[in-house]
């Protein structure tokens, strides 16, 4: 989440922010964006679900062509200009079946292909081949085999339908940064000293710090991470407040600890460098220094 490395986190919901740097990030919504841009002739790379430089360049070229703000953000205005394949985001519709068309269908096809179920071309069109792939997937996952991607099938991909209502309040006094860090560490069963050390390393406990990559707040959360946590981990909107920032950052750290089998060093590295990058590239020298510094800082907060 540091400004020097874009975090390789997952989903976007309200907006898709693409990195200006060449370091790629993975995102379950990116196949839908790539297909929509490819159909319009702006994206010429593979449908790989990686928001790399080709995808970022295509977004900016498209925005320039249609005369909207060139900010590299595939938000509602950009997606509306992309037409039928620019909507809806994956997880917003609860029933996809033969004849369906759209961004979410492209994501579904990509997920099926990545899991080896061969839906045919990833193009945002739910065809007979897509339905056959869904049936094979459903059979393998012991789901109702009907070739229709309904709530149960879509839920099996791990995506939560995010409510537009805010997350229900979690009671407890959180009137200061330290109180918020302590509260959410206890809530997610992480050592408070580790959470406070990470927060100090990221921001020095300053709630208004913003990086060049758009990460902000106590935990230096990027828009991509915030949307991922809302969509995959909480299922509700989280207020854009100091306390909400801490909750999102701690929830994400909790997920990374599980993802990396509770190896604290690797989870911290993934928080800083991104889980995809940690797994596929290894740790950068600056990431190793970041992890060592966080672990050293823990002693201050015991």
Question: What would you say this structure looks like, in words?
Answer:
The structure is a single chain. By secondary structure, the protein is mainly α. It has helices spanning 30-39, 53-66, 76-81, 103-114, 128-140, 151-155, 177-187, 192-203, 223-234, 242-259, 264-273, 275-280, 285-297, and strands at residues 25-26, 50-51, 163-166, 236-237. The strands form 2 sheets. It has a two-stranded antiparallel sheet with strand order 1-2. A two-stranded parallel ribbon has the order 3-4. The protein is globular, with a radius of gyration of 20 Å. The protein starts with 24 loop residues before the first strand and ends in a 5-residue tail after the last helix.
């Amino acid at each position: 989440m540091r400004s020097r490395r874009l975090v390789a986190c997952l989903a976007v919901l309200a907006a898709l922010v693409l990195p200006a740097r060449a370091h790629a990030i993975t995102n379950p919504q990116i196949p839908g964006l790539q297909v929509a841009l490819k159909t319009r002739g702006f994206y010429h790379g593979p449908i790989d679900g990686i928001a790399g430089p080709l995808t970022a360049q295509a977004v900016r070229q498209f925005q320039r062509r249609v005369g909207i703000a060139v900010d590299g953000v595939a938000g509602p205005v950009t997606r509306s200009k992309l037409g039928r394949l620019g909507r809806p985001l994956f997880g917003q519709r609860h029933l996809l079946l033969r004849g369906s068309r759209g961004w979410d269908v492209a994501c579904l096809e990509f997920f099926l292909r990545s899991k080896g179920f061969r839906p045919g071309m990833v193009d945002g069109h739910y065809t007979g081949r897509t339905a056959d792939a869904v049936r094979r997937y459903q059979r393998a996952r012991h789901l109702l085999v009907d070739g229709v991607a309904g709530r149960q099938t879509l839920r099996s991909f791990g995506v939560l339908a995010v409510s537009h209502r805010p997350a229900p309040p979690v009671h407890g006094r959180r009137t200061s940064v330290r109180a918020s860090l302590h509260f959410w560490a206890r809530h997610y069963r992480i050592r408070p000293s580790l959470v406070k050390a990470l927060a100090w390393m990221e921001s020095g406990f300053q709630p208004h710090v913003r990086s060049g990559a758009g990460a902000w707040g106590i935990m230096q959360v990027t828009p991509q991470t915030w949307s991922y946590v809302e969509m995959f981990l909480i299922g509700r909107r989280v207020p854009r407040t100091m306390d909400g920032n801490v909750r999102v950052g701690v929830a994400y750290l909790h997920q990374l600890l599980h993802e990396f089998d509770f190896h604290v060093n690797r989870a911290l590295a993934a928080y800083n460098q991104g889980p995809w990058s940690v797994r596929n590239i290894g740790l950068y020298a600056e990431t190793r220094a970041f992890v060592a510094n966080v672990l050293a800082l823990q002693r201050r907060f015991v």
